[in-house]
Design goal:
This protein is mainly alpha-helical. Helices cover 43% and strands 6% of the residues. It has helices spanning 2-24, 28-45, 87-92, 102-115, 120-134, 144-148, 170-183, and strands at 196-199, 210-214, 217-220. The chain has a 3-stranded antiparallel beta sheet, with helices on one face.
């Protein structure tokens, strides 16, 4: 009986030992999971090779020598000219300067004394004659004032002075506006090429080309 008991006890101990080893050993699923995890950790732990990035070419800075400049304005550009439907409207749009330069004053005085109260086109034609003479290239004196004060040309001149002018009146303001329009070439006159004029009340019998009759004057070139 003791031999049988010992054999049974040995078998029980062996069985328990085997069961304990089986319980403590990892399962197949755990083994696979651990292997996969180890591989993943190994891949993560390995450094990723850096990718070489070729730098972009540098753009040269723009210097003052190569700076883009605006194209020069066209000399014939009329964009700055005042737009008006009539000479009367254009006159009304002119600003009266606080002070006048001498050339504008001389031109306005010729308009004032020769044609104040006449139709605006006639006043503009008088201004055109004075300007055309100043631009004649030697045929007449080279400036507006020297044309106006040329001896024997304008009857209103008294030596080197003008007669008194009512500078607060409407006639003077209109004369100044006409002078500005003529000097800025803002309106086309029918007497734009005239160099001479006389009142319609006289007939000097000039051997000149007649250009137009405007207001109380006849214009020639």
């Amino acid at each position: 009986m003791s031999r049988i008991y010992r054999a049974a006890s040995f078998a029980a101990v062996t069985l328990c030992t085997a069961f304990g080893i089986a319980c403590s050993a990892p399962s197949f699923a755990e083994t696979v999971t651990n292997a996969v995890s180890a591989m993943s950790n190994d891949q993560v732990s390995q450094p990723v090779p850096a990718v070489a990035v070729e730098p972009l070419p540098e753009v040269p800075a723009v210097t003052s020598d190569s700076a883009i400049t605006a194209a020069p304005a066209d000399a014939d550009d009329d964009s700055d000219r005042i737009q008006a439907r009539s000479l009367d409207q254009l006159v009304s749009q002119q600003d009266m300067p606080v002070t006048l330069d001498r050339e504008t004053e001389c031109l306005a005085a010729s308009v004032y004394f020769e044609s104040k109260g006449e139709p605006l086109e006639g006043q503009l034609a008088v201004a055109e004659v004075v300007l055309n003479r100043a631009k004649s290239g030697g045929r007449f004196p080279p400036s507006v004032c020297s044309v106006v004060f040329q001896k024997g040309q304008f009857s209103f001149v008294r030596g080197n002075h003008f007669p008194p002018i009512n500078r607060q009146g409407a006639f003077w303001k209109t004369a100044v506006a006409i002078a500005q329009i003529a000097m800025d070439d803002e309106w086309d006159s029918r007497a734009s090429n005239a160099l001479f004029f006389h009142a319609t009340s006289v007939s000097p019998g000039w051997n000149k080309v007649r250009v137009a009759r405007l207001g109380n004057h006849v214009f020639y070139r």
